[in-house]
Design goal:
Length: 79
């Protein structure tokens, strides 16, 4: 495996991890109804975030960053 090919594979994997990060982040948010605090007020909605999907998103963005740095390093080493 050449260094240029390895760099391309790492950059593609970084892009896939970044896409997974965005999808997990967007899927983490949901809306829930909240009961009124005082009687007679209308009920309100609140945003609820799934902690597992937020954690998964943070892990994927970290992996994407590491792969991006390694991929760019291998790419520049060949040039």
């Amino acid at each position: 495996m050449t260094t240029r090919f390895r760099a391309i594979i790492e950059l593609v994997l970084a892009a896939v991890a970044l896409l997974g990060c965005v999808l997990a982040w967007l899927a983490a948010k949901s809306t829930a109804d909240v009961a009124p605090v005082v009687a007679g007020e209308p009920s309100k909605t609140s945003n609820v975030y799934d902690p597992w999907l937020i954690s998964w998103s943070m892990l994927l963005v970290t992996v994407a960053g590491v792969l991006l740095v390694i991929g760019v390093t291998h790419w520049r080493r060949v040039s």
